[in-house]
Structures are given as structure tokens and as C-alpha cells.
Amino acid sequence: MKNGIIRFLTVVFCMVILTAPFSVYAEEQYTLCLDYSKENIKFSDLDIAIYRIADRNYDILPPYESYPVQLKGITSQTEWLKTAQTLNSYIQADRIEPYMTAKTDEQGNVLFKDIDEGLYLISGMVAEKEGRTFNFYDFMILVAEDISAKPKSEIHEPFDGEKVYTILKLWKDDSSKQRPPYISVDILKDAELYETVTLDSENDWSYTFNTDSAGKWTVVERDVPEGYFVVITEKETSFIITNTLYNTNPDDGTPGKNTGTDTGTPGGSKPVTPGTNAPQTGDTFPMKRYMIMLCVSGMMLVVLGFGMRRKDDAKGR
């Protein structure tokens, strides 16, 4: 009778273990260190903002899920950098609050402590030093461990006078019937609306404006047509807005119909750019399988012990 109760309790224990939910990934926090220096010049007291765009699986988080961008299916560093630039344009235009901000120290370093894992956008920064302009570009980084990065930057010599800016619209949709007759583009200076323009076939999907006003110029497309995602590429004084039709053939591995030419963009540091097959870190050991093995082993020991005890009792008789 006693042995029967023990066996019953063992079975019940195993059933409870096997039906209990287990979390494969532990909720962890990490440290991100960024180095803002160039040619032995340290940039101190810069306000750096980071935005947690997606989780480790590149599923976009609120409030960014409404933006017309594509994260999954990206296969190159250039694509990631274009996506970072696009996201930051919308974020600055809509004045989205960052996940965290911090200032660089005297050595040009900034430390973000105890941040959740996920895919982050590091907003670009323009700094003046020694009579030159240093442009630190937007970039994205997958934080799944403590990590350090050095943002890519370019140097521009002072320019006095008028600059000519051009906005160009490209379509990657095989002349789809879904293409609208026109689009609206907001031009922003230092995140403030400067002008809204319309691009269509009559103006060759382009717009040019002259200005001698210094500042950070960005553009965003508004009311993106359904079925498209957007990539905004900045090349000196040109802005290229590319609308790509979402892929209707998921077996080809691409996010959309990519029938155009890669326009390129200034790159970021390769080690900190996430890719489609970025390594997944953390404890991914199948915990439930481990518990199953323990339960089976325990049951075998109980049965074995019960059998050996019956043999001993038989010998004793």
C-alpha cells in the first residue's frame, strides 16, 4: 500500500512539472558603451539619445509599429544603415521620446546602464570642433549582451553660402497599379517643419530648394500608400525616398520587390550593425526537456528500488 502511494505521488509530481510553463529566456539587462571620438578629438558633453525599436526577434515595438519600415529580411549593412536613417527621420519629425539619454564624458564616451535587450536606434549627432563639422551617423545595434561601439562619422569643412538640396522619389514596384498619383513630403530643419511639398510625375517625382540656413535637414514621406515600405537615404545635399512594394512571394527571401538600384549610404561600424542572422545569445537550453529527463530518471529509480526491495523480501522469506 505504501509503495503504491509513493509511485502515485511520483507520477503526480512529474505531471505538475511537465505542465508548468517555463520561460526559455531570462529577462536581463545590459550595458551599452559608445565612443564619440574622431582623429584623437574627444567630443564631450554631447546629448546622445537611444530608442528601443524592436525586441531581439526584430518584432517592432510601440510606438514605432506604425512607421512604414521593414526590419525582417534585411541582409546587408547598407540596408540597416538606410533603415536607421529612415526611422530617425520619422522619430525626430514626430518628436518621439527616447528610451534613454545621456551625455558623453571628457573622453567622448557615454554609458547606458541596465537597458533591456532588443534592437536599438542610436540617433545621429552633429558636432562642431576646431572649425570643422563632424557628422555622426544614425545606426542600429542589437543589444543582447554588454557591448561597446564607435559610431561612424564624417568631417565637413565649413561652407559659407547657399546650398542646393534635392529630394528624389524612387519606386520599386514594377510600375504597380497600387502606386499613387502623388506623395506628400515634409521638409524639416532641426526637427521643425520647414515646408510640405508634393511630388508627382509632372515634376518628375523630385523637388529642389536653395537655402543658406545652417542646421540639420531631414525629410519624411507622409501618408505612405498601403502595401509599401519606405527607405530614406541622405547623400550630402540629396534625399532619396524609395518606396518598395511589400513582397508578394515570400519564398524568395526578400522583404519586397527589389527591382531598382541600390543607391548606397554612408556606412556605420560593421561590428555593431545587426543582420538577419545575428547570433542569438543567452540561455536557450530547453528547460522543459531537462525536467522531463529528471522525471523519467526519478520514476526509473522508484521502479528499480521497488523491484530490488521485493527481491530482498523474497530472499528473507
What is the C-level CATH assignment of the largest domain?
Mainly Beta
How many structural domains can be distinguished in the coordinates?
A: 2
Helical amount: 10-25%
Distance between the termini: 19 Å
Elements, N to C (H/E): HEEEEHEEEEEEEEEEEEEEEH
Chain-averaged pLDDT: 78
How many beta strands in the DSSP annotation?
Answer: 19
Our estimate of the beta-strand percent is: 35-45%
How would the global form be characterised? flat
Provide the gyration radius in Å: 28 Å
Strand order, largest beta sheet: 5-4-7-10
Q: What is the CATH-assigned architecture of the largest domain?
A: Sandwich
- Quickly give the structural class: alpha+beta
Description:
The chain is of the alpha+beta class. It has two domains: 132 residues, Immunoglobulin-like (Sandwich); 105 residues, Sandwich (Immunoglobulin-like), CATH 2.60.40.1140. Helices cover 21% and strands 36% of the residues. The protein contains three helices and 19 strands. A four-stranded antiparallel sheet has the order 5-4-7-10.
Layout of SSEs?
Elements: H1 2-19, E1 29-35, E2 37-38, E3 41-42, E4 47-54, H2 77-94, E5 100-103, E6 109-116, E7 118-122, E8 125-129, E9 132-136, E10 139-143, E11 147-149, E12 153-156, E13 163-172, E14 182-189, E15 192-200, E16 206-211, E17 217-222, E18 228-235, E19 238-245, H3 287-316
Helix pairs in contact: 1-3
Give a brief outline of the structure.
With 317 residues, the chain is α+β, with helices and mostly antiparallel strands. It is built from 3 helices and 19 strands.
